[in-house]
Design a protein that fits this description.
InterPro entries: Antitox_HigA, Cro/C1-type_HTH, Lambda_DNA-bd_dom_sf
Structural class: mainly alpha
Radius of gyration: 21 Å
Shape: elongated
Strand content: under 5%
GO molecular function: core promoter sequence-specific DNA binding
Number of domains: 2
Protein name: Transcriptional regulator
CATH topology of the largest domain: 434 Repressor (Amino-terminal Domain)
Helix content: 55-70%
Order of helices and strands: HHHHHHH
Number of helices: 7
Length: 120
């Protein structure tokens, strides 16, 4: 086993992981898969970083996960039209909305305070 330094190393690691993926826990193959996963993760974080979604996308993702509709956020945001304005990026989130949404959707306030562009 070696560090993943190139795309070829990365591709070889992914192929090896496919072979090892269903190895029984406690076997040498399972241990190899654990270490390989760490190496793959480190390479991906460096060369293929995934940016966090903007606050509105984070809300929409959580709504989908929790099977919520816009009407379910009225108590957190304050009115049907205001929910629509927020989710369509016509209006910015207020501090109170962020607090309410963090509690209602079980999201960190940090994921909701990021900047995003309003649509026209």
């Amino acid at each position: 086993m070696k560090l993943i330094k190139t795309k070829d190393d990365y591709q070889a690691a992914l192929k090896r992981m496919e072979i090892l993926f269903d190895s029984p826990i406690g076997t040498p193959e399972s241990d190899e898969a654990d270490v390989l996963a760490l190496l793959i993760d480190a390479y991906e974080q460096q060369y293929y970083p995934i940016e966090a979604p903007d606050p509105i996308e984070a809300i929409k993702i959580r709504m989908e996960e929790m099977q919520l509709k816009q009407v379910d956020l009225i108590d957190a945001i304050g009115g049907k039209s205001r929910v629509s304005e927020i989710l369509n990026k016509k209006r910015k989130l207020s501090v109170d909305m962020i607090r309410n949404l963090a509690s209602r959707l079980h999201l960190s306030a940090n994921s909701l305070i990021g900047d995003y562009q309003l649509t026209r």
